[in-house]
Amino acid sequence: MFAIFASFYVAGRLWQDAQTRVYLIKELDRVTGLGQSAISVDDTLKIIACREQRKKLSALELDLAAAGREGFTSKRSSDTNEAVSKRRPLVVIGVLTRFGRKNNREAIRKAWMGSGATLKKMEKEKGIISRFVIGRSADRGDNLDRSIDDENSQTDDFMILDQVEAPGELPKKAKMFFALAADRWDADFYAKVNDDVYVNIDALGATLTSHLDKPRVYIGCMKSGQVFSEPGHKWYEPDWWKFGDKKSYFRHASGEMYVISGALAKFISINRNLLRTYAHDDISAGSWFLGLDVKHLDEGKFCCSSWSTGAICSGV
Q1: CA distances from 147 to 68, 143, 180 (A)
Q2: Does the pLDDT of residue 169 top 80, yes or no?
Q3: For the packed helices 2-33 and 41-69, what is the interaxial angle rounded to 10 degrees?
Q4: Is the CB of residue 104 less than 8 Å from the CB of residue 196?
Q5: Which of 57, 205, 267, 301 is 20 to 30 A from 197 (CA-CA)?
Q6: Least confident of 16-25, 58-67, 157-166, 288-297
Q7: SS (H, E, C) the chain
Q8: Predicted pLDDT of residue 24
Q9: pLDDT higher than threshold 50 for residue 35
Q10: Percentage of the chain surpassing pLDDT 90?
């Protein structure tokens, strides 16, 4: 057995040496064809070194591409340039709104989000970015679209999606918010909020700061509920049969408000065309993380239906 393995080793080395000799002969022919008499020892060593460096570079490029697909990005240095030295946002909040809800938006601006200089101050000092998220009218450019454009020209606090604004499109709307927000801002967290929810910004900031050590975390008021299979029901789920005989949803965060870490938002961004949606945005978001190594954090402070000590949100 030792002799067999030794013969394999010697044959392999001879094959490698033969390959190298063939390559050098070709290079010699190429060089001599240009009028040079012979290839020098230095040139030979340079050729071999270049080949090795090329192999290493190809391997690094493959590793970098794989890391990008998994949602990893390079660390930013604080002393490179002015743009890089800016404070990384703690959280980007998407307040999902719709047409005819201007009064709700005005109430949110007055209560916790602010506008103009106040909004910019929150972004700069607390690292909290907040935007109203809305789609476009089915009749592009109509009065509904123009009213949002006019409002945004005054407040500059909208993220307008290139999709139809409709109740049945809410799950896709939430998915696109996370995807586009991750593309635009490199934040630690991303939060989805309804436009009838008031947020305690200071409590939110303090809570999220305590979870910065968790790279993949899904935070909210975790719940589970019945899957309704009756088409006329308010909460009808067309894919009810996928949830088993007991027709009960898996654990997921309540849709009034929930938060995901930056790595999960990047995962949604990269896989936006593959992630399917269900009838409700909170169910859809929960389904995206079932097969991932994600920390599900049931945080009572995110239960917006009732105030508790240190509560983060309240539904109205």
Answers
A1: 39, 6, 23
A2: yes
A3: 110
A4: yes
A5: 267
A6: 16-25
A7: CHHHHHHHHHHHHHHHHHHHHHHHHHHHHHHHHCCCCCCCHHHHHHHHHHHHHHHHHHHHHHHHHHHHHCCCCCCCCCCCCCCCCCCCCCEEEEEECCCCCHHHHHHHHHHHHCCCHHHHHHHHHHCEEEEEEEEECCCCCCHHHHHHHHHHHHHCCEEEEEEECCHHHHHHHHHHHHHHHHHHCCCCEEEEEECCEEECHHHHHHHHHCCCCCCCEEEEEEECCECECCCCCCCECCCHHHHCCCCECCCEEEEEEEEEEHHHHHHHHHCCCCCCCCCCHHHHHHHHCCCCCCEEEECHHHCCCCCCCCCCEEEC
A8: 58
A9: no
A10: 53
Residue pair 184/178 in contact by the 8 Å Cβ criterion: no
Q: What's the pTM value of the predicted model, to 2 decimals?
A: 0.69
248 and 224 Cβ atoms separated by less than 8 Å: yes
Q: Which two tokens stand for residue 259?
A: 């938060």
- Strands 313-315 and 295-298, by their bridges, are unpaired
What's the whole-number mean pLDDT along residues 134-138? Answer: 96
